[in-house]
Design a protein that fits this description.
Layout lengths: L5 E2 L2 E5 L7 H15 L7 E6 L5 H14 L3 E7 L2 H10 L4 E5 L8 E7 L8 H11 L16 E3 L3 H10 L12 E5 L8 H8 L3 E5 L18 H10 L3 E5 L6 E4 L5 E2 L1 H14 L7 E5 L4 H9 L3 E5 L3 H11 L3 E3 L5 E3 L8 H15 L3 H4 L8 E7 L9 H14 L3 E7 L5 E8 L2 H18 L2
Parallel strand pairs: 3-4, 3-5, 4-7, 8-9, 8-10, 13-14
Antiparallel strand pairs: 1-2, 2-6, 5-6, 10-11, 11-12, 15-16, 17-19, 18-19
């Protein structure tokens, strides 16, 4: 069954255009509210959002839908996605909702759902919501005496700040560390700098002046250039870049060098291994993680399990295999000892704890392995059928054979754009480059 509204991470699209238009959002709230309502007591839903202008519209439409379905609504205002997941459990809510399009520009928006356990809804649950959305609205509406009430939770940010601070070892402080934090003008613009300051760090802030339009605009984890420059300018010890909803993080060392999610996973996993706190015998990443990470973990007797791209797939594999560390090269780091989804701030705090404990520079702590040359090209195509053409299949097989054990090839259609992503990595940088260019040309030639 093809899903109509939900994509790889909730519902997402251009704000005020289907499926992110008020009518669909209202129906979505009614459908999800109806599905998660309970007869024994008044059901409740918690809602957070990032700083996009359209967040007001989405929040109000969702609220109306939930109230109509008989759910009490608790509004957090701007708050990171992982905070919503945490507070869904903490406040014993039946459903949690985050309004965000993550690292996308301001003109997009989206809706992410969390169940009462703080985990994202399953695909089956999302399909049930879709079916209800396309059914009769009258069947979703509660009786007049069962309508919900709305309330704003004023201390949601403070609750999350305390929660994040408690993920550090007892009595650990960040005194003496100069930290530049880039909040992407997004959901963490208040909580992240405050948490770092309360832990004792000297905090220099950028990306903390949201105006509804500047979220992820040349700031944040997808654009770390300003952060690198500010770290060098201020002679800071570390730079931390979050994305719009703060579920991913990129680190910059004291030299201004960018550290990706693969290195951060290695730092956290090995530190936990040394404390006998790593479960599952390794970590879960995606098919995009660097071969260098896999070789490094293998040298320490640790497994690297690869899931499909997307933190949902990483989490599913983590839960199935009993892993407590997982993530993506892009900076989604999932630490299930603390949180049920990617959390940029908590991941950054765990890296800082290693820096403090070992008393070494960030450039030394965060360069755990040498990545092998990796190159990716996005090939725009008219349709995904090009992947099934025999000549394309032969070219892919030949490339894999030529790379052998010294390299890796991943070719996959994008879930959000009409492109085929071609990623090649291996010890021979020239061979990597030639392979990517050749496969991109083959795809273009056979695209109908």
């Amino acid at each position: 069954m093809t899903r109509k509204y939900f994509g790889t991470d909730g519902i997402r699209g251009l704000a005020n255009v289907s499926p992110m238009d008020p009518q669909n959002i209202l129906r979505c709230g009614m459908a999800a509210g109806h599905m998660f309502s309970r007869d024994t007591q008044k059901p409740r839903v918690v809602i957070g959002k990032d700083t996009r202008l359209s967040g007001y519209m989405v929040e109000q439409a969702l609220t109306a839908g939930f109230l109509s379905a008989g759910m009490d609504v608790f509004l957090f205002g701007p708050l990171p996605t992982p905070a919503v997941a945490m507070l869904t459990r903490s406040l014993r809510a039946d459903l949690g909702v985050m309004i965000s399009a993550s690292h996308n520009p301001y003109y997009d928006n989206g809706i992410k759902f969390f169940g009462p356990d703080g985990f994202k809804l399953s695909k089956e649950q999302e399909k049930r919501i879709e079916a209800l959305m396309d059914g009769s609205v009258d069947k979703l509406a509660a009786k007049p005496d069962r309508l919900g009430r709305g309330k704003r939770i004023e201390d949601a940010q403070a609750r999350y700040i305390e929660f994040a601070k408690r993920t550090l070892p007892r009595a650990m402080r960040l005194d003496g560390l100069r930290v530049v934090i880039d909040c992407a003008n997004g959901a963490a613009y208040k909580v992240a700098p405050t948490a770092l300051w309360e832990l004792g760090a000297e905090v220099i802030e950028i990306g903390v002046e949201p105006n509804g339009f500047n979220i992820n605009d040349n700031v944040g984890s997808t654009a770390p250039g300003k952060l690198s420059a500010k770290v060098r300018e201020m002679r800071a010890d570390i730079g931390i870049a979050l994305d719009g909803d703060a579920d991913r993080v990129i680190i910059v060392d004291e030299k201004g060098n960018v550290v990706d999610g693969d290195q951060l996973i290695a730092v956290i996993a090995t530190a936990m291994q040394e404390k006998d706190a790593l479960t599952g015998g390794g970590v879960v990443t995606t098919i995009m993680s660097n071969l260098g990470l896999e070789r490094f973990l293998d040298s320490r007797g640790l497994k690297l399990e690869r899931a499909n791209v997307g933190d949902r797939h990483v989490m599913e594999m983590m839960r199935a295999g009993g892993y407590n560390v997982g993530g993506e090269q892009s900076g989604h780091i999932i630490l299930t000892d603390h949180i049920t989804t990617g959390d940029g701030l908590i991941a950054a705090l765990q890296v800082l704890s290693v820096v403090v404990e070992k008393g070494r520079k960030v450039s030394e702590i965060c360069h755990v392995f040498d990545p092998v040359p990796q190159l990716m090209e996005n090939v725009r195509v008219s349709g995904k059928g090009v992947m099934d053409i025999p000549e394309v299949q032969k070219a892919l097989a030949d490339a894999r054979g030529e790379l052998g054990a010294a390299g890796r090839l991943v070719v996959r259609p994008s879930g959000t754009e009409p492109v085929i992503r071609v990623m090649v990595e291996g010890d021979d940088e020239d061979k990597v480059r030639r392979t990517v260019l050749h496969l991109a040309e083959v795809l273009r030639q056979h695209d109908s």
